Amino acid sequence: MMGHKVTIAIPTYNRSTLLRQAVESALGQTYQDIEVLVADNSSTDNTGDVLKQFTDHRVRYFRHSENRGFINNFNFCLEKAEGEYFLLLSDDDILEQDTIRSLQTKFQSGADVMAYCSLIFFNENTKTRKIVQKNAPEGEDGFDFIVNRLADRRVWAPSAALFRTSVLRSTGGYPPTGIATDLASCLAACMKGTVRYVSHPLVYYRLHGNNVSQITKYSIASHDDLINWSSKPGSPVYEHRDRIYRYCVRILNRMTYTAAQAGNREVFTFAADILRRLSPGVAQEAKFKLYSMPNIKYAVSFLFYIKESLASRFLSAR
User: Fold this and answer.
1) Whole-number pLDDT of residue 266
2) What integer pLDDT is reported at residue 281 of this predicted model?
């Protein structure tokens, strides 16, 4: 029978060095009633050897015989969780010692479905740190949280969010929306009740490379998947489908612009094609990008792409 146990789930794949830090931060919590569930997605490095060094009985280690994909691994973690509360810790992030205690004590009634906190973004390569906070109430209706999160008025990350396990399961866990699956599951859970916030930053969120290197076809397609998932009748966030649509289009706009600046034609073309399908009005889109681009070569490149796209549409319509 579950009491107030907290499951800290760490899905992992080929990050043995960083994983060690994540597990150590989980075991070092001042809140003692925890389990640390590590789901190894068939790593080919020494992840297994690293986990063998942890003799704490609270560590539960599972290794898949073959890679299931990260979303299936997330759902595996949720399925195996024995805690009343659930936190999905990225294998490269780090918890402060009081993270779980600070979040768990925020659950004041059965209506509370999630407690989250501010973050510290850090990059070990550049030795930079940045505290990321936004003004938010200590308690907020889940509907209002969703509205504010989709308007970028709330800072949120899965490693900094503690959920009621039963609520996450009741909404279907992590849906097939690519890298947007954690946000999708959060929005679905928040439809079920109220949200609590800790303004103090309690999680170190690791940054890798730069913003440009993080923009891939997969990350772009994930936001298209999020729109499709939310727009289906029966979706737990169907009521917010228009807000999710506007949020994703805004993100895709940023990705398109960043890819154009970087001169990454393949990614830019992929993003622009999705963006035009979702948000018709090529001329308006071109105007936005042209005014935004500080370097004339990117503007010219974008203009030629738009010209080619329009010509292609004209020919196909004849």
Assistant:
1) 86
2) 58
Strand bridging mode 128-132 / 112-123: antiparallel
State the amino acid at position 40 in one-letter form: D
DSSP class per residue in 47-60: HHHHHHT---TTEE
pLDDT at residue 213 in the model: 46
Q: Given a cut of 50, is residue 314 above it in pLDDT?
A: no
The neighbouring-strand residues paired with 11 are 39
Question: Nearest to residue 239, comparing CAs of 178, 194, 191?
Answer: 191
307 residue type, one letter = K
Q: Which residues pair with 204 in a beta bridge?
A: 94, 120
**202/120 Cα distance (integer angstroms):** 7
User: Are the CB atoms for 215 and 272 separated by under 8 Å?
Assistant: no
pTM for the full model?
0.87
* Domain membership flag for residue 1: no
For residue 219, what are its two tokens?
């990350």
Centre a 10 Å sphere on the Cβ of residue 235 and count the other Cβ atoms it contains: 20
The CATH number of whichever domain residue 95 belongs to comes to: 3.90.550.10
Which tokens go with 108? 């004041």
| Host domain of residue 221 | 211-317
Alpha-carbon distance of 307 to 301, in angstroms, equals 10
C-alpha to C-alpha distance for 34 and 90, rounded to whole angstroms: 17
- Note the pLDDT tens digit of each residue in 231-263: 999 999 999 999 999 999 999 888 888 887 777
